[in-house]
Amino acid sequence: MRGLQVQVLLGVPLSFFMFIVFxxxxxxxxxxxxxxxxxxxxxxxxxxxTSKEPTDGPHGTRLRQSAQSGRLSPQEELDxxxxxxxxxxxxxxxxxxxxxxxxxxxxxxxxxxxxxxIRGFDPIEIRRINEKFAPLPDIxxxxxxxxxxxxxxxxxxxxxxxxxEQRDALQKCHDVFAxxxxxxxxxxxxxxxxxxxxxxxxRALSSIQFI
Length: 211
Ligand code: TYD
Prior knowledge:
Layout: H1 2-10, E1 19-23, H2 30-43, E2 48-52, H3 58-69, H4 74-98, E3 102-106, H5 109-115, H6 123-131, E4 139-144, H7 147-153, H8 167-179, E5 185-189, H9 194-206
Parallel strand pairs: 1-3, 1-4, 2-3, 4-5
Helix pairs in contact: 2-9, 3-4, 5-6, 5-8
């Protein structure tokens, strides 16, 4: 319904969605695609809010630091991602959606299913916990890339790189993302140039009638 309202407002043959999430393993170019999509929608006169998880708030900052300085226990890490997301949902996501802005996120709870899933938690249970407080997106765009390309993009070779970015972990995360089969999940081939991937993102958004 919301996408239809935007379509009518713009008078263009595109249905845009109000809550858009980019997901994918490290190195797939999510932040570039968030920026390109935000620019495209802003140019069409929409109010666009972009954000990312972990956030730059206190919990998110602690999580980023821990990736470099020493990994937290699985439970501590999971709790911090949930605290960070609760604040994000209450302070930014819900207010922006309520006033009709388009929200575009670089990662959301599907990343928790993947990255904390591989630390021993059940991805389905993680999702159940998140769905109690975190609204479902209108569309999730999963940027897909083979591991070798992803690892070379993030500069990891022969076991180098930070704790979050190891090959085995990325393979398992990839598998969790691959297991998502909701109607709102769309997969985009991220091997192409940023401009080509952006075109595919626009195509994915316009291919669905949101009524
Ligand atoms: P990332 O998007 O790579 O940010 P940046 O490169 O700007 O630091 O996110 C940092 C890491 O956080 C990434 O490896 C995935 C991880 N992560 C989780 O483990 N669980 C989560 O719920 C989220 C949102 C991210």
